[in-house]
């Protein structure tokens, strides 16, 4: 199997495989219209040589025609030429209809493939800047209509190649060397546009981080979340200058490459003119010697002119296809080859079981030192444990590992007798309720915001109501204009909520499912200490006999837990009850004493 870092990825056979894989993705998105498009491509390609051939036959018929039979001799060939032009026009019109249909279908299919892939990439990859570059190129630059562009350019390339073969046959009837001369010089000049396409791709890829930064500056200037600070701190002129600076730099690099490439293309275009003149001379010499008929001469010259035009088109399309192909290989397939979290099919998740953490270590991709190191503890079924420590101590990272969202780089997490990595992740997550520090504010209905905690019960109004009551959101939901059908957030003109109200909605979502394990990962950082204590107390009460993990960098809530684990700089330094840790006089006592004034 070829991996992302395997040199075999760069072998020609691997690249051809990827191109065929992309074309198959485009084909299977819309097989019926794509098959019709294939037939149309072949027929339209054949009309190119058919026209000069029929024109030559018409000229020969005209040169032989005499008297009253002349008209009858010409009519069939005139009708053939008209029929060819009508067929070409009809096929071109059919191509426009097919292109629209295929484009829309392929766009949604390929973008859906990228979005589906994004949901299966290991969560820790989202902490790597290079991953976001890859995702941006795949989802933003390539996966939309540009996948269709690759497909459509390839279709026209095939059409051009079919026309080339036919035109070469017609022109060769005048002189065999004439089309060979056109094709040989055209092949030589193809290198320049091909290299230009390679350079364009390399530049676009190199500019991805700057392009993302440019887009981020635009987001700061336009998004509601940043609008207050941008105005309050007078950041708009500064951000606009930075945006303009990045935009000018990207524009200058793009135009510099384009100017160099266009000059080279213009110089190379002179070569085919000389070869065309030489090819025409060869045919005229054969005609003068009487070796070909007048009609054959006209057909050969007509085919020769069309051959050069088609060859220029084919070489240009080849450069385009190669350029888009490079993007496909470098962007879309690279992203689709990202490693994935385990798919459903592992061991079923057990019921309430003890959680055993053994010498757990985790290092984020690209980081110089581990975020967690040598963590070991046991969490009994039904136990309520508080994870405390300063910001950056590793509390949220530990929870991600306990839930199987991250994979350890050392040690393991076991639920009952099984390593978390052996379990079906979907089944494991289905038995977990969580409210994260960076919980999502869904700008959808209240019902969606609460019901997403157990999407299979999204239509269970009673269950959603009970979860809202348990999370402390039911009272203010009852006062909303449409209650549970009220759209929240400003994106679609909905009702905005206070930070505390959003937090209660998120807590309700976390309590929606009848989970064995509940996690509250300090989603209350924006609340005052008393309001935070109320949230934790409500959450602890709802835990009942279920296993619960409560996390915060503030100490006041910790007495709600059966046991407290104290983290510092990625290590477990203390554990015990509140009273035990206060008597110990270590890290916990220091943190608690520092914050005691908040809870007086």
Task: Summarize it.
The protein is an alpha/beta fold and 600 residues long. It contains 21 helices and ten strands.
Residues in helices, as a percent range: 55-70%
Summarize the biggest pleated sheet. 6 strands, mixed
What would you call the structural class?
A: alpha/beta
Model regions low in confidence, pLDDT < 50 over at least 5 residues: 1-9
Structural account:
This protein has 600 residues and is of the alpha/beta class. It folds into two domains: 12-336, ABC transporter transmembrane region fold, CATH 1.20.1560.10; 355-599, Rossmann fold. The chain has 21 helices and ten strands. The chain has a six-stranded mixed beta sheet with strand order 6-7-8-3-9-10, sandwiched between helices. Strands 2-1-4-5 form a four-stranded antiparallel beta sheet, with helices on one face. Strand 4 and strand 5 form a beta hairpin. Helix 7 packs antiparallel against helix 10 (236-268). The longest helix has 50 residues, at 69-118. It starts with 11 loop residues before the first helix and ends in a 5-residue tail after the last helix.
Topology:
Elements: H1 12-29, H2 31-64, H3 69-118, H4 129-142, H5 145-172, H6 177-189, H7 191-206, H8 208-222, H9 224-232, H10 236-268, H11 270-288, H12 294-336, E1 355-362, E2 372-379, E3 384-388, H13 395-402, E4 410-415, E5 418-419, H14 425-430, E6 432-435, H15 446-451, H16 461-470, H17 474-478, H18 499-510, E7 517-521, H19 529-543, E8 547-552, E9 563-568, E10 571-576, H20 578-584, H21 587-595
Parallel strand pairs: 3-8, 3-9, 6-7, 7-8
Antiparallel strand pairs: 1-2, 1-4, 4-5, 9-10
Helix pairs in contact: 1-3, 1-5, 1-12, 2-3, 2-5, 2-12, 3-5, 4-12, 5-6, 5-12, 6-11, 6-12, 7-10, 7-12, 8-9, 8-10, 11-12, 16-18, 20-21
């Amino acid at each position: 199997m070829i991996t992302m870092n395997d040199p075999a990825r760069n072998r020609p056979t691997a690249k051809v495989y990827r191109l065929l894989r992309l074309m198959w993705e485009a084909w299977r998105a819309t097989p019926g219209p794509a098959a019709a498009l294939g037939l149309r491509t072949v027929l339209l390609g054949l009309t190119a040589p058919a026209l000069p051939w029929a024109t030559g036959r018409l000229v020969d018929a005209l040169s032989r025609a005499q008297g009253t039979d002349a008209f009858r001799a010409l009519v069939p060939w005139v009708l053939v030429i008209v029929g060819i032009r009508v067929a070409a026009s009809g096929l071109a019109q059919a191509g426009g209809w097919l292109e629209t249909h295929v484009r829309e279908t392929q766009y949604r299919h390929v973008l859906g493939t990228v979005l589906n892939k994004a949901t299966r990439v290991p969560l820790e990859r989202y902490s790597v800047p290079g991953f976001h570059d890859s995702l941006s190129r795949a989802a933003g630059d390539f996966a939309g209509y540009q996948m269709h562009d690759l497909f459509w350019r390839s279709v026209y390339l095939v059409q051009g190649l079919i026309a080339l073969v036919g035109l070469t046959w017609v022109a060769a009837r005048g002189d065999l060397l004439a089309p060979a001369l056109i094709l040989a010089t055209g092949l030589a000049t193809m290198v320049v546009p091909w290299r230009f396409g390679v350079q364009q791709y390399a530049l676009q890829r190199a500019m991805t981080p700057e392009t993302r930064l440019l887009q981020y500056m635009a987001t700061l200037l336009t998004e509601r979340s940043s609008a207050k600070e941008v105005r309050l701190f007078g950041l708009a002129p500064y951000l606009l200058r930075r945006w303009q600076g990045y935009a000018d730099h990207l524009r200058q690099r793009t135009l510099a490459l384009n100017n160099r490439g266009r000059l080279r293309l213009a110089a190379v275009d002179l070569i085919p003119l000389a070869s065309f003149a030489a090819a025409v001379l060869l045919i005229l010499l054969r005609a003068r010697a009487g070796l070909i008929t007048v009609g054959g001469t006209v057909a050969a010259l007509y085919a020769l002119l069309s051959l050069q035009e088609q060859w220029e088109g084919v070489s240009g399309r080849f450069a385009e296809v190669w350029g888009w192909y490079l993007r496909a290989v470098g962007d879309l397939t690279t992203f689709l080859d990202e490693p994935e979290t385990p798919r459903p099919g592992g061991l079923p998740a057990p019921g309430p079981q003890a959680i055993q953490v053994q010498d757990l270590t985790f290092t984020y991709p690209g980081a110089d030192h581990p975020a967690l190191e040598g963590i070991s503890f046991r969490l009994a079924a039904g136990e309520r444990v508080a994870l405390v420590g300063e910001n950056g101590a590793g509390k949220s990272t530990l929870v991600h590992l306990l839930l199987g969202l991250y994979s350890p780089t050392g040690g393991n997490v076991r639920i009952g007798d099984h390593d978390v990595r052996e379990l079906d992740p979907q089944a494991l997550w289905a038995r977990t309720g969580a409210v994260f520090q960076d919980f999502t504010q869904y700008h959808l209905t209240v019902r969606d915001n609460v019901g997403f905690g157990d999407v299979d019960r999204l239509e269970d109004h009673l269950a959603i109501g009970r979860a809202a009551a348990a999370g402390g959101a039911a009272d203010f939901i009852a006062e909303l204009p449409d209650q549970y059908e009220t759209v929240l957030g400003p994106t679609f003109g909905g009702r905005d909520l206070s930070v505390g109200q959003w937090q209660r909605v998120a807590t309700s979502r976390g309590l929606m499912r009848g989970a064995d394990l509940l996690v509250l990962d300090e989603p209350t950082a924006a609340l005052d200490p008393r309001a935070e204590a109320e949230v934790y107390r409500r959450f602890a009460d709802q835990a009942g006999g279920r296993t619960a993990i409560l996390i915060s960098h503030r100490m006041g809530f910790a007495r709600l837990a059966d046991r407290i684990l104290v983290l510092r700089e990625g290590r477990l330094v203390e554990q015990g009850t509140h009273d035990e840790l206060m008597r110990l006089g270590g890290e916990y006592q220091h943190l608690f004493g520092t914050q005691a004034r908040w809870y007086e």
